[in-house]
Structure formats: C-alpha cells, structure tokens
Amino acid sequence: MTNSNSLLPLKMLLFSFHATNTIIISFLPLYLKHKGLHGTEIGWVLAVGPLASIFAQPFWGYMSDKYKTVKRVLLICIIGLLFSSVLFFQMNGLIAIILMGAVFYFFTSPIGALGDSLAQRRADDLNVSFGGIRMWGSIGFATSSLIVGEVLSSIGIQYMIWPYLFFGVVALLVVFQLTDVKVESDPIQLKDVSQIFTNKPFVIFLAIIMFITITHRANDSYIGLYIAQLGGSEGLVGLAWFVGVASEALVFAFAGKWFKKYHTLVFIIFAGVLYSIRWFIYASIDDPFYIIALQFLHGVTFGVFYLAAFQYISRLIPKLLQSTGHLVFFAVFFGVSGIVGSLVGGALIDSFGGGRLYFVMGCFSMAGTILLTVYHILPYGKGTRKVQQ
C-alpha cells in the first residue's frame, strides 16, 4: 500500500471529525441561545466541555499509551460521541444540558488530539509532513462551516443535530480502516506519567501559552455571538469560520516548506504577536463584514501557533508517552484555557459587549507573547532542535 493510500482513512477521519467539531464550536452558542439561555449560562455550558476534557484527555491518552493503540480508543470515543450527542441535544433545562454535556464532551474532546497524535506518528514513520495530513481536519472544518451555516440559516438552528450525526457516522465508518501505531516497548505504568509533569520546560511552556490559548478559546466560543451582536446571521457566522479555517488549511499544507528555517519558538512568538493585533482590531470593529474580511488571520495565528506548539512539545515528550503528552497539551490548550475563556468571556460579553471582550483578549495575548520571548531567551527555550518535517 502506498503512503497516500495508507493515509487516506486518517485524512478522512480528520476531515469528518473536524466537520462535526465545526458544528459544535460555530453554532452551539447560537443553539443554546435559541433554547433560551443567556450569555452567562451559555458560558457555563461551554465551560463544561473544557472541564470534561481536563480529565478525559489525559485518561484516554494514558489508555492509548498503556494498550499501545490509538485506533481502538478512537473507536470507543466515536461510538460514545454518537450515542451521547443524541441525548445531549434532547436536553432542555440548564442543569440537564450541563450534566449530559459533560458525558458528551468526555467522549468527544479526546478525538481531535488522538487523531493529531496518530497523524504526528504516521508522519514520522512515513517521513511526510504532519501539516500535510493535519490540513484535512481544517478542510473538513471549513467545508462544514460553510455548508452547515447555510443549511441552518434555511431550516433553523434547532435542527443542528442532523448534520452533526451525518459527519459523526462518516467518522465511525472510516476509523475501521485506520493503520494503528506500532510501539516496541513494555506497557507503560501509571508512575511513568510523572515524567511528563516533572519535565520543567514542558510545564513552563504550557503555563505561558495559556495567556494566548485562553484568548483563542474565548474567540471560539463567542465570535458567533459577537457577529450576531453586530447584526450578522447564522450564514455569516458559517462564512467567517470558512474563511478562517480555509486559511488555516493553507498554512498546514505549506508548513513543511518554511518550518525548517527557524527555531519552532520563533514561529510561536510570531503567531502570538499576530493574535494580539488581531484581537485589538476586532475590538474596534462595528460591522460583521470586517470580521469576515479579517478572518484569514485565523489561519496565520492558530495555524502557525498550533502546528509549531504541537511539534515543539512532541520533542519534549518521551516517545513512550506521546499520546499522554499530546493529550495533556490538549487538556491545557482546549481544556483549562477553554474554561477560563468561556466563563470570563461570557461574563464580559454579557456585561460590556463583544468589543470590550476582544480588547481584554488582546492584552492577554500581548502578555503571553512577552513571556514566550523571555522563555525563548532563557535556557529552557533552547532545549529542542528545529522541527523536522
């Protein structure tokens, strides 16, 4: 089997899962608003996902490393996604939505991280670009945001379960065709995981990037509501995500050509600078079409930041603990940061509006970028070689 054929199921998995993820990230806040929840309550529901992921991602990562399989863990999680989503979308009261949401996110939150972890390992095995595989997740996200946005504008936000289940079933079908990881070593023990949390460069790096990842996750949660505040429709929200994630796919696709030139941290700092500029511009906007026009910056900020950070921490983690380390990274990036971003963002947008929220996000990003620059200058930031694509 050729490299491209053996990677096709993995690319299709990334495409279909991120297509489902689009629907949750882009339209769940609007769906919850339709259910009668206000901004702060929506923040509570959105914070459940990151909270569940803090526990779910290290747990499923550990199970993956312990039993030396990503494929079987993905299968369990996707089956859980399908069953729990049906129940989640039937809930009406705030408490019921939060409780069922915790179960739903327990299964869904690790899938992206496990898919990316498998993509990183397959890229290393076949000596191909990780970005070239990962871009298929972005293509799925972009395609879904554009199509589903238009569909929901026509049929109503209350029917968002149906496109979600469609892409979820596709993900389930392709996971059976995946090529699993091969790790030649003794099974890991729980005590081995301590190597990750005693790795000072890894822990310090995760603490610093939270200043930036909190703002990224707040934007994920509230850009739809901000566009709606400015007078935009569901279709415009979908278009905004399409523009952003299409540019992200291009960054992933061509990363292999320019990623070798500088130390990985230089790219992370560069992305941090652009994040700060992006949020300050968004804070001053009064027309939703300006946000859509500037959404290409999403690819340059998140695309560069995520790819560089993921590859950087992959060099800090022992090979035996790759899945666990990757999912700890995800738990911080999308978990802890998501909780803070959802709760604080919900309170800010409720009390002061979207403009003030984005101004605060710009200040946070700027602080994180300064700390990353200091980290790069200090010995901790010098410990990894340039990324090899």
From TrEMBL:
Principal place of residence: membrane
What keywords are annotated for this sequence in UniProt? Cell inner membrane, Cell membrane, Membrane, Transmembrane, Transmembrane helix, Transport
UniProt keyword Ubl conjugation, yes or no? no
GO (cellular component) term, any one? plasma membrane
Q: Which GO terms describe its molecular function?
A: lactose binding; lactose:proton symporter activity
Q: Where in the cell is it found?
A: Cell inner membrane
Keyword Manganese on entry: no
Domain named Major facilitator superfamily (MFS) profile is located at 166-389
Q: Which InterPro entries match?
A: HcaT-like, MFS_assoc_dom, MFS_dom, MFS_trans_sf
- Per its UniProt record, what Pfam families does this chain match? MFS_1_like
Membrane topology, record value: Multi-pass membrane protein
Transmembrane segment boundaries: 12-32, 44-61, 73-89, 95-114, 135-155, 161-181, 202-218, 238-255, 262-283, 289-313, 325-349, 355-378
- PANTHER family per the UniProt record, alphabetical: 3-PHENYLPROPIONIC ACID TRANSPORTER-RELATED, BLL5896 PROTEIN
Protein known as = MFS transporter
Tell me the organism. Virgibacillus necropolis
